[in-house]
């Protein structure tokens, strides 16, 4: 995935997506920040990552490359098409379109045991 602000804007425009203030949406697009998060978290191929609010999936792409599995919770269902497009190549990413605070995380994690 291209992490440039221009490419991200193209993806959002193509999907007619606009950031929603009520969700406090602010998508990470700086590859340096994304790489720093991955490195500092010491994620490896044995790691299960829970990501709350994957947005358009920029960080999720790198998480999927580094981790065994990535479980994402996204409250904004209008991001479904964008996330499917950006994460289609990964079979280790699951996205639950639900409010994380209302989710049964223990039940969701049973899939990974």
Report what the structure shows.
With 113 residues, the protein is an alpha/beta fold. It is globular and about 40 Å long. Strand 1, helix 3 (58-66) and strand 2 (69-73) form a beta-alpha-beta unit. The longest helix is centred in the N-terminal third of the chain and has 11 residues, at 31-41. The protein has a three-stranded parallel β-sheet with strand order 1-2-3, covered by helices on one side. It has helices spanning 5-14, 31-41, 58-66, 80-87, 105-109, and strands at residues 48-52, 69-73, 93-96. The chain contains five helices and three strands, in the order ααβαβαβα.
Summarize the structure.
Helix content is 38%, strand content 12%. The longest helix is centred in the N-terminal third of the chain and has 11 residues.
Mean pLDDT: 91
Helical stretch count? 5
Topology, number of strands: 3
Largest sheet: 3 strands, parallel
Helix content: 25-40%
Task: Give the strand order, joined by hyphens, for the main sheet.
Answer: 1-2-3
Structural class: alpha/beta
Order of helices and strands: HHEHEHEH
- Envelope shape: globular
pLDDT < 50 stretches: none
Strand proportion, as a percent range, falls in 5-15%
Rg measurement, Å = 14 Å
First-last Cα distance: 30 Å
What's the layout of helices and strands?
Blueprint: H1 5-14, H2 31-41, E1 48-52, H3 58-66, E2 69-73, H4 80-87, E3 93-96, H5 105-109
Parallel strand pairs: 1-2, 2-3
Helix pairs in contact: 2-3
């Amino acid at each position: 995935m291209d992490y440039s602000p221009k490419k991200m804007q193209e993806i959002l425009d193509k999907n007619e997506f606009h950031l929603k203030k009520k969700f406090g949406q602010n998508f990470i697009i700086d590859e340096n920040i994304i790489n720093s998060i991955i490195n500092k978290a010491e994620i490896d191929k044995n790691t299960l990552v829970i990501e709350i609010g994957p947005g358009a999936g920029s960080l999720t792409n790198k998480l999927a490359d580094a981790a065994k599995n990535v479980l994402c919770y996204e409250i904004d269902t209008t991001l479904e098409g964008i996330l499917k497009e950006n994460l289609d190549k990964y079979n280790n990413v699951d996205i639950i379109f639900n409010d994380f605070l209302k989710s049964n995380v223990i039940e969701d994690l049973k899939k990974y045991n």
